[in-house]
Amino acid sequence: MTTATDTPITVVTLDREHDPHDLSAPLACRDCGIRVDGPHDRANVEVLQSSGFRMETILGSVERERPSPIVHTAVTRCESCAERVSLANELLDQFPKVRLRIGSRSIADARVLNALIALDALGVRLPKIDSDRELVLLLNHMTRTGSAVRFDARLTGPTRPGAAPGCEFSAAPWTHVPADIRGKLRGATAAYLKARVDTPRPIAPPDGHPRGCLLCGVSTQLATAATASTVWARLSISPDRVGGERGAKRVNGVVCRICDRAIDKAGSVGPSAMEESLAAHLEIREWAYLDRPELHGVQSWAATGRTKPNDIPWSHLGDLKHVASLMRSPA
Ligand SMILES: [Zn+2]
Ligand SMILES: [Zn+2]
Fold first, then answer.
1. Do 209 and 181 fall into the same domain?
2. How many angstroms is it from 95 CA to the middle of ligand 1?
3. 293 has a pLDDT exceeding 60
4. What residues pack around ion ligand 2 (CB closer than 5 A)?
């Protein structure tokens, strides 16, 4: 029986010289690898360059780099791969927060494209992406494998011994993908599809602890079944370090992910950690650190002595819009 695992790599090589400037010759699709006949529009052609080294085996086992001529290879995209590029763009336009988190538009474009490529190479239909989370899941699971699947991964870096870059094409889309990469693709896809159905739900602090985050007081955090046990971090605090009365009894409890990170960033539990947490929860990127007397009196939820947790982090402080404006205003 033939399984996908032993599908041989099938690449065809044309018996001709490759001229990267000849727009009438057939070119490989840089993603799926199939032959795209000319003439080509110059705007759709990119010339890739190999590094001019190739690995050589000496004494039967030791590999070393050996200089070889730099190879220029022109590539293009077939119609369906060009459509995928547009789809990647549309997805990022639809979920701009994901793009902002990645930073650079071109890096974001490449990550989404590689993830879509990974699914297509296995013949898996792209599931519906209708939230930031769905897109982030896709990227987290599929991007890395997708970059190894692209045909142009063969054309950059050291040239392979015996390769005829520019004259090679996949016999059919993705037939250049070797078995080990296909195996990784299947693993990544299975993990991705599993993570999609593991929908996040609100997780309260573990039994036996105060019912809110000791700093911000939030009552629940969204987490999947796989991560539910790790969303609350245990902590023991002296209330007088976080706005409570001097000499008040230590409180054992838990903190949310954001407050946990804030404590890490501040280096200790205290006013700076509370400010870091407020800035993170209120999505303030830059704030004035010094001379804000109004903020000096900030109390953590634990220091208030309340037992009812907050639906919204820090809502025990009252008007959070006012707090945000104090933090944003220069001292
Ligand atoms: Zn293609
Ligand atoms: Zn918190």
1. no
2. 25
3. no
4. 213, 215-216, 256, 259
Q: Kindly report the CA angle at 206 between 201 and 210, in degrees rounded to 5? A: 115
Position of tokens 């971090």?
233
Ligand 2 centroid–CA 229 distance in Å is 16
Distance 30 CA to ligand 2 centre (A): 47
Judge if 50 and 34 occupy the same domain.
Answer: yes
Q: Please, are residues 248 and 240 in contact by the beta-carbon 8 Å criterion?
A: yes
Distance (Å) from CA 262 to ligand 2 centroid: 9
SS3 category, 244: coil
pLDDT tens, position by position, 99-118: 998 989 999 999 999 999 99
**Residue 52 Cα, ligand 1 centroid: separation in angstroms?**
26
User: pTM of this prediction?
Assistant: 0.62
Q: For residues 184 and 191, give the distance between their C-alpha atoms in angstroms, rounded to a whole number.
A: 11
Q: Which of 197, 217, 248 is the last residue of a domain?
A: 197
Within 13 Å, how many C-alpha atoms sit on residue 196's CB side?
Answer: 18
Ligand nearest to the CA of 150: 1
Both tokens assigned to 187: 């693993």
How far apart, in whole angstroms, are the C-alpha atoms of residue 211 and residue 190? 36
The number of folded domains in the chain is 2
Distance (angstroms) between ligand 1 centre and the Cα of 16 equals: 22
Q: Could you tell me if 295 and 237 lie in one domain? A: yes
Residue pLDDT, tens place only, 67-108:
777 888 999 999 999 999 999 999 999 999 999 989 899 999
